[in-house]
């Protein structure tokens, strides 16, 4: 179950990164409604990527540093943050032509609305997570890439819990009260049927 969910998550993350690369490619090479590349920035290999995150441990955790403004510059770490930035740096940066090195600046946000305000003020390039559904678009002026259908579907497990035999035996041993109740109800139903047949 964990491996299947993780595989689906990685597929969705790679699709999100490819979408971000396509947007970056479109913004870089199709300026002024032209399909010819802009050769003026060919030697520039460093771009700044400003990212805002909501703190949701263990997905994102932080050691905050106040930088003198309303926003807090943060040294962010976490499961989603590490995976997304790894894909962005490799897929959009190193594999692009010419290769781009991203200097990532992370900002800590307290709420989804604060992150949207950072986007509206053009203070960040990328925010996560945003809980937006395709049916109800609250922020229609931005492009969103769907990462997962249901938040919280991935679980952290230890190596011992991932062996199939251990998982099955553990599930059976933990569900013995259900088995006992089922046997008792079956016995009662059998007695009732026997009594009805005897009448």
UniProtKB/TrEMBL annotation:
Transmembrane segments: 176-197
Keyword Transmembrane belongs to the record: yes
Residues spanning the signal sequence: 1-30
Keywords from the named record: Membrane, Signal, Transmembrane, Transmembrane helix
Entry annotated with the keyword Signal: yes
Name of the protein in question: Solute-binding protein family 3/N-terminal domain-containing protein
């Amino acid at each position: 179950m964990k491996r299947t969910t993780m595989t689906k998550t990685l597929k969705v993350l790679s699709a999100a990164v490819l979408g971000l690369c396509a947007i970056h490619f479109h913004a870089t090479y199709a300026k002024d409604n032209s399909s010819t590349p802009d050769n003026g920035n060919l030697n520039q290999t460093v771009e700044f990527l400003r990212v805002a995150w909501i703190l949701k441990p263990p997905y994102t955790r932080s050691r905050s540093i106040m930088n003198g403004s309303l926003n807090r510059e943060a040294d962010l770490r976490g499961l989603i943050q590490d995976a997304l930035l790894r894909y962005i740096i490799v897929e959009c940066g190193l594999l692009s032509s010419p290769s781009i090195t991203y200097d990532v600046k992370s900002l800590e946000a307290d709420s989804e609305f604060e992150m949207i305000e950072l986007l509206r003020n053009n203070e960040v390039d990328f925010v996560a997570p945003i809980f937006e559904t395709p049916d109800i678009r609250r922020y229609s002026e931005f492009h969103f890439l769907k990462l997962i259908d249901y938040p919280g579907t991935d679980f952290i497990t230890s190596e011992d819990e991932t062996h199939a035999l251990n998982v099955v035996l553990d599930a059976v041993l933990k569900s013995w009260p259900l088995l006992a109740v089922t046997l008792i109800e079956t016995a009662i139903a059998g007695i009732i049927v026997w009594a009805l047949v005897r009448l």
